[in-house]
């Protein structure tokens, strides 16, 4: 099991990030030439914070709805605002029911 030569780097130069003909994988990333991760390689890492942002926004919408605020408005505000929407929902007072 040796290392594959780097394309265009001259004869005998070895890329340490490649074993045989397959790149080494680290946490869902395929490192490209010279061991530098490209944007396409690290894009899946952006999904985790994006998911957490929307999940926090859904919690904010649920909290605001329990306090008597409009659920549809808070779903949009929670999805856009994330943590800011959650803090806003926590600080808002309970709404009185209409007579």
Task: Write a concise synopsis of the structure shown.
The chain is mostly helical and 99 residues long. It has helices spanning 39-42, 44-66, 71-81, 83-91; strands at residues 18-19, 22-23, 25-26, 29-30.
Number of helices: 4
Q: Indicate the mean pLDDT.
A: 74
Tell the overall outline.
Answer: rod-shaped
Main structural class: mainly alpha
Largest sheet: 2 strands, antiparallel
Radius of gyration: 24 Å
Structure description:
With 99 residues, this protein is mainly alpha-helical. 47% of the residues lie in helices and 8% in strands. The chain has 4 helices and 4 strands, in the order E-E-E-E-H-H-H-H. The chain has helices at 39-42, 44-66, 71-81, 83-91, and strands at residues 18-19, 22-23, 25-26, 29-30. The strands form 2 sheets. It has a two-stranded antiparallel ribbon with strand order 1-2. Strand 1 and strand 2 (22-23) form a beta hairpin. Helix 2 packs antiparallel against helix 3 (71-81), helix 2 runs parallel beside helix 4 (83-91) and helix 3 (71-81) packs across helix 4 (83-91). The longest helix is centred in the middle third of the chain and has 23 residues, at 44-66. 10% of the residues are buried.
Which secondary structure elements does this structure contain, and how are they paired or packed?
Blueprint: E1 18-19, E2 22-23, E3 25-26, E4 29-30, H1 39-42, H2 44-66, H3 71-81, H4 83-91
Antiparallel strand pairs: 1-2, 3-4
Key structural traits:
single chain, 99 residues, mainly alpha, two-stranded antiparallel ribbon, 4 strands, 8% strand, rod-shaped
